[in-house]
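Inputs:
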Amino acid sequence: MYNQNMVVKLFGQIRAGNPQRVLLCFLEKGIEFEVIHVDLNTFEQKKPEYLLRQPFGQVPAIEDGDLKLFESRAISRYYATKYADQGTDLLGKTLEQRAIVEQWMEVEANYFNVVVLPLVINIVFTPKFDIALVEELKVKLDKVLDVYENQLATNRYLAGAEFSLADLTHMPGMRYIMNEAGLGSMVTSRENVNRWWNEISARPAWKQLMEMAAY
Amino acid sequence: MAGIKVFGHAASISTRRVLLTLHEKNLDFELVHVDLKDGEHKKESFLSHNPFGKVPAFEDGDLKIFESRAITQYIAHRYEGQGTNLLQPDSKNLAHYAIMAMGMQVEAHQFDPLASKLAWEHVFKLIYGLTTDQAVVAEEEAKLAKVLDVYEARLKEFKYLAGDTFTLTDLHHIPAVQYLLETPTKKLFTERPHVNKWVAEITKRPASQKILQ
């Protein structure tokens, strides 16, 4: 008999960046999941019932049997570790390789996302956004992408020769850059970053996620 | 064997995260001083260690990495059997590892941006001859208060953030906490009994004392 508890539940919205990080990890690893929709448009994530799952009022959160977690990057790391031998290898085979993957995951959080998030919030979600701020953020993003351009000149993927969680964790943000935020030229003007984005966005798991999101 | 090298500044919050970890593990290392005031971290010689021009950078034999939280995690795993255990007691239990990982993300995304801004306003700005912006302080303290309310609830249930033992999750907070204890923001900790107790525990550790010297 089908046991509803055996499949991990993800609480969030499919068209939201942080839940997409986790969904992509599930798809790359071939992990079955169920999405429980949390409606960000009506601020469902700020309501008391949801705050029990995520005390900061953000998506996603997961429930897997007795395990309850939030923070998309922690969730991704957990599943990538737990299912190391299933689906795509996302963390590398040695401690040293993992350290490099972790380094570029930190870069995504501390350099890339820290600029892309306010850029997206302003350009895409704020009717009268702060133009000066957006220009400032674009300058910062340019500098970050220059570092990526250099790294990707001698590495097929950010952490080396193989696709990893370091690349995956960028993908929801990159999608906004290439689409609604209208900043695609920052990518297409950089030969290696462009090559990298074309390659990772051609992956079957990404295409599955795009189908789910139905933009 | 080339040994462990940290390229950083002994007063920098991020560098201290790494130094704390090395002290907790009783590991020998060399701290190569990077003169931040002089802009050394933006110069070519340092950019080869970290292309983003930020401290710290780290070397262990052939491995060269940057980003303090990637470094601390590498050290905690690589030297698991040595010194203080900074992972969960049953390091093979993945669910417990996930809870620690989640706490590390909370420190990075919820706590640190606010704590760092406040440390900048109260402490580092003065070193650079600038003045504290009290409006920013008020705004950031209001946000930090809400985060610490979540911590207070958590620390009512558990002695440390990831469970009953000290882990990397707690350690990552120490450098910023130490700076804030010397400022008016200290009240946000002392007002919350369980947070206050936790702060006292983590800052009295010998390694925590060592990095202040």
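The mean pLDDT of chain B is 96. Flag for discussion at group meeting.
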